Amino acid sequence: MLTGKWSPVEHRRFLFGLKLYGRGKWMKIAKKCVLTRDYTQVASHAQKYFKKQKIKIPKVVRDVKSQNWWNEIMLRRNIQSCHLGQSSSHTLTC
User: Fold this and answer.
1) Whose CA is closest to 94, among 47, 30, 33?
2) What is the secondary structure of 11-64 as a DSSP string?
3) Is 6 within 8 Å of 45 (Cβ atoms)?
4) Partner of 25 for a Cys bridge, out of 10, 21, 68, 90, CB 3.0 to 4.6 A?
5) How would residue 12 be classed by pLDDT, with cut points 50, 70 and 90?
């Protein structure tokens, strides 16, 4: 496992895992998306990320209502164009 500052790739994988699995699923995000960090590091990164964003994240981001919320956040933060890859579908494989 790595220590220290998160790379941009690790952070993109964290965001993808958050979208895929939802808040609080740090073990899944660590094991299936951010392979270079353990779940406590993912949880710590999430805590800092949410504090920095100063937004409340719904516990489930996979339902339709939350999906609209996620898309709105992605647009506001300009993440779609610069963080989730180069393809037009904005996908990232875990």
Assistant:
1) 33
2) HHHHHHHHHHH-TT-HHHHHHHT-TTS-HHHHHHHHHHHHHHHT-PPPS--SSH
3) yes
4) 21
5) very high
Q: Is the dihedral of CA 45, 53, 13, 17 positive or negative?
A: positive
Q: Report the pLDDT averaged over residues 9-16.
A: 95
CATH topology for 8-82 is Serum Albumin; Chain A, Domain 1 (1.10.246)
Question: Considering Cα of 60, then 64, then 67, then 72, what sign does the dihedral take?
Answer: negative
Nearest Cα neighbor of 12 from 4, 3, 2, 20 is: 20
Q: pLDDT digit string (tens) for 29-79?
A: 999 999 999 999 999 999 999 888 876 555 555 554 555 666 666 666 654
